[in-house]
């Protein structure tokens, strides 16, 4: 029972937090507010899904924010009348741009043996430069109305479109949860993060696993950027600033260990939702934005400290 509760603790925390906030602030449980919270959570949740794979495999990706901005700007630029790409093709291209960035990260880490922190930091700076080159330093606008469907900012079949990004996020959670729990690749990802030397000696292609997880992380970041551009109606070159930290925080709050070998996709999505719920209640209670950062930062430090203490107590971590 303890293991079951620990595995699903992010969902329990989310339920308890939502119940407490509903009792304190009746505005929180209004249908329109709940729909808004879910829709705003989708971007960080999708980025956190890919980041979780990298963290479980024992790495970290600092470039996801700028890769998301790159994906959004690429899709918005191609969907403009000047280029005339179909909306679906433009979104695929933006997602593919993110996957290429992730592939480069994976090759640098696995083949060139560059530490993940340095490799992804370099990619973050390179992606930021490409974003401003493509957008010429300006927000990209003028896309057709169909471009806004994915982000949920237009009505579909006479209904408010908020459910489209929520459904897309749920489908991605299901796909990546299945990948982690029911496939050989998922078991290899956990083994690579838990004990890379032992995994290599057991015949697991550790380098290939790392390339795959970084590529998937870039792919989800690119798609998240397309979704954000679709929601706001513009390709903003500065839209990815700081979002990599939000994605990492969501993973940690969701139970992923920064030391590798532990984490769940559902937990990461729940972590993103917990962060958005905290931001929402701060807005409803007119709490300054600075306190929102203080709360999230405190939670992340507390959870990482608890993870280190738990591992040291169980003998998994020694001085």
Biggest sheet record: none
**Relative helix content:** over 70%
- Kindly report the CATH topology: ABC transporter involved in vitamin B12 uptake, BtuC
CATH class: Mainly Alpha
Query: Which runs of at least 5 residues are low in confidence (pLDDT < 50)?
Result: none
Describe the protein.
- The two termini are 30 Å apart.
- The chain has 13 helices and no strands.
- By secondary structure, it is an all-alpha fold.
- It is 72% helix and 0% strand.
- The longest helix has 27 residues.
- The mean pLDDT is 89.
- The chain has a single domain, classed as ABC transporter involved in vitamin B12 uptake, BtuC, CATH 1.10.3470.
Fold blueprint:
Layout: H1 2-7, H2 9-24, H3 31-56, H4 64-79, H5 87-110, H6 116-135, H7 163-182, H8 184-194, H9 196-201, H10 206-232, H11 243-253, H12 265-284, H13 289-314
Helix pairs in contact: 2-12, 3-7, 3-10, 3-11, 3-12, 4-5, 4-6, 4-10, 5-6, 5-10, 7-8, 8-10, 11-12, 12-13
């Amino acid at each position: 029972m303890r293991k079951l509760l620990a595995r699903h603790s992010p969902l329990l925390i989310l339920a308890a937090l939502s119940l407490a906030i509903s009792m304190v602030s009746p505005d929180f449980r209004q249908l329109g507010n709940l729909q808004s919270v879910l829709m705003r959570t989708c971007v960080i949740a999708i980025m956190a899904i890919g980041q979780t794979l990298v963290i479980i495999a024992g790495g970290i990706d600092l470039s996801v924010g700028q890769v998301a901005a790159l994906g959004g700007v690429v899709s918005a630029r191609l969907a403009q009348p000047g280029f005339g790409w179909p909306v679906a093709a433009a979104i695929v291209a933006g997602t593919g741009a993110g996957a290429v960035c992730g592939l480069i990260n994976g090759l640098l880490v696995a083949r060139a043996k560059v530490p993940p922190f340095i490799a992804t930091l370099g990619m973050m700076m390179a992606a930021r430069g490409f974003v401003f080159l493509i957008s010429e330093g300006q927000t990209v606008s003028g896309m057709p109305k169909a471009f806004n469907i994915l982000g949920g900012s237009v009505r579909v079949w006479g209904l408010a479109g908020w459910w489209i990004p929520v459904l897309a996020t749920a489908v991605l959670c299901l796909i990546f949860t299945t990948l982690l729990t029911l496939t050989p690749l998922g078991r290899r990802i956990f083994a690579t993060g838990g004990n890379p030397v032992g995994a290599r000696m057991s015949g697991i292609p550790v380098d290939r696993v790392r390339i795959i997880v970084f590529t998937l992380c870039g792919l989800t970041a690119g798609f998240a950027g397309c979704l954000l551009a679709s929601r706001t109606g513009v390709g903003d070159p500065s839209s990815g600033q700081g979002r990599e930290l939000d994605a990492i925080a969501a993973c940690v709050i969701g139970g992923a260990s920064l030391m590798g070998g532990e984490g769940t996709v559902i937990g990461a999505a729940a972590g993103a939702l917990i962060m958005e719920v905290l931001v929402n209640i701060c807005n409803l209670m007119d709490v300054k934005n600075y306190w929102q950062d203080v709360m999230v930062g405190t939670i992340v430090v507390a959870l990482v400290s608890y993870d280190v203490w738990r591992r040291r107590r169980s003998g998994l971590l020694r001085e």
